[in-house]
Amino acid sequence: MKRNMQRLASLAVAAGLVLGMAACGSGQSASNDSSKATNTSNTTNTAVNSTESSGGKSKISFWTFHTNAEKEFMASLPEKYKAVNPNVEVTYENFPESDYMGTKLTTAFAANAGPDVFVMSPGDFLKYANSGVAKDLTSYFTDEMKQDFLPSAIDAVTVDGKIVAIPFEIELLGLYYNKDMFKAAGLEAPKTWDELINATKKLKKGDIASLIVEPSKGYYQNFTWYPFLWQTGANVIDSGTKTATFEGEGVEKSLKLWGDLIKAGAPSKLSIPLTNEIALLGSGKAAMQVCGTWAVASLENNYQDTNIGLVPLPVPEGGKAATAAGGWKLMVNGKSENSDAAAKFAMWAFAEDTSIPLEWCTKVKFAYSPRKSVIEAGKDIYTKGLREVFTNQIYDSAVGEPRYPSEIVNAVGDALQNVMFNNGDPKSEAKKANDKIADFLKTYNGAM
Amino acid sequence: MNNLSISTMTTRKKYGIKSKKVKENLFAYFMLAPDVIGIALFIFVPILIALYVSFHDWNVLEPMKYIGLENYKNLLSDGQWWHSVWTTLLYTLMFVPMVFCISLLLAVFVNSIPGSAQEFFRTLYFIPYSISTVVASLIWRFMMDPQRGFINDILRAIGLPAQDFLGNPKQALFCIAFISAWMLIGYYSIIFLAALKDIPVSYYEAAYLDGANFFHVFKSITFPLLKEVNTFVLIVTTIASFQVFDQIKILTNGGPADATNVSVYYIYKNAFEYMKVGYSSALAFVLFAIIFVFSLIQLRITKGNSDE
Hints:
Order of helices and strands of chain B: HEEHHHHHHHHHHHH
CATH architecture of the largest domain in chain A: 3-Layer(aba) Sandwich
Largest sheet of chain A: 6 strands, mixed
Distance between the termini of chain B: 60 Å
Strand content of chain B: under 5%
Shape of chain B: globular
Largest sheet of chain B: 2 strands, antiparallel
CATH superfamily of the largest domain in chain B: MetI-like
Distance between the termini of chain A: 59 Å
CATH class of the largest domain in chain B: Mainly Alpha
CATH class of the largest domain in chain A: Alpha Beta
Largest interface: A-B, 66 and 73 residues
Helix content of chain B: over 70%
Number of strands of chain A: 16
CATH topology of the largest domain in chain A: D-Maltodextrin-Binding Protein, domain 2
Oligomer: heterodimer
């Protein structure tokens, strides 16, 4: 009996390890007074931040997830800022992308040790905007700046009439393809969905993938699939009335398209987890890939020997061209003691002078700037090489990446996964997702 | 006088023993302290905090809001949660027998090898256990790549159709169970091997003299005498199977089409993707209860066996 009790105790400990997982994100939970529960206003919240002022010098932490040239660029900003404002010391920290969006930011904010300035994806934007973490930057935007930014870019970072982030890049999607493989197979670059399916079937050969679209569920898969949905005229929700519209022929057709592409031979699994990496196409291991503007620089620098072309995303019979315009935003921690100094640093980096954003969008990587002045300053570059296709054939069809809450992303993702991998019927999958979204919207009060 | 001296002697002796015992006990507590404090601080305190959080609505960024049993009510009707529990059970049914049978057979095989070759094989099978889960998972992810993986290269070379493995909802969970088993088999076969060494050789000699063959011996001597170890391995691997996470995070992220969305992964997703920390804590407690009940049942069954 005694031994059994010992065993039981050790079982309890082992099982407790599971619980430890959920608890590890809650470091400071117990000290958080629940009487504050009703207080959701960020102005009265007196969170202690890791940064502190010492000797009149403000210390600011700045976090991103970049690699290579992008990381070097971000790391160079604090040094440059020293010349502008010697009283502010900015420390840059860089994390692997999956950690950054996985647990790093979440746990840092949970422990009241979040960074002062950080980058945010459209996918997680609302969580931070609705919770009051994001500092209201409206007063930092001069009229001149507001004129300079594209109205759609400002809309994308506005919540309840407040500008809560700085957009600093616009990234568009297109279909990259290997010209030599198409020529050898006697095919033209696909313009329609049927041609896309046909090419996917024909170009699959041994260990060469014919078409790479993101097979794993998540924000990125949805982001790359939305253009096909929009091309049919359908949408996930009507953001004006906040009602679910994920039903009808357009939704079913676009769900079915990705199912058909998998059946036609597009890989169901990739060893490199994110398909936003262009390595497979660049190294001749794939014939086509749905990817974004950011891939241009990588193709030019690392894969000059492969003959790569670019076309707008294929459209369905009778549909109209559409692509998604994504891009990260710069957010400032409104709960930080130094939020004013942090906001000034962020504005300096991407809203004032044109030289820093121009370097980011044209030299470090290729993206469109959300600012008219920057696009004007770099107009020669925007027609170089594959960029010309984005500028002249794709740019006009861009629709801003939606900033849906994760519940909606999840419902859409489930429908897409089931059609792609479980032989799900597009009609019933769309209905299931639509019901889930409608249910969620009933109780959702945040901004959309 | 005589009497007095005797009584003082006994008292002295008595107190001497007692103080020695106290000293020993104190020393034992002192030696245990680091572990006890560590477990309390890093396991029991977080568990209590998780329990507290599970009664709240908390998205990490805003203050917690007390909502009573709401999270527990919600999880009852959360289809995805119960699907994840079912997926975990399926995984257990694949993983536990696989680890148990293969490591037992390997142990019997290694035990039958004479001389120093035995050490060689023992080390060989133990190597996968010494690789970190992350590294091992990454290696398998590349080997199982549907397009360019080494395993499909072999299949194609011998004229078999290439498989999707982790990209196919019907194969993915089994692949993960297989990979996890591959990592752990070496460890459990060492445990079995140690127990095998405890069985007196004379039993086998007697059996073989009576004309028993290998299978008779295994069935009637080896297996019954391993009862204690069998129980241990079954319970520990069952618990491990309920806690599978790293492999899933690295190999499939719960996909394709939720085919590998096990409970712990679903808990992680709720906490760090959907930022429903209160809800995920409630899920963790329910999982804790499920594991606890399972272990109790297992203990009851195995206890019944050993009473026979």
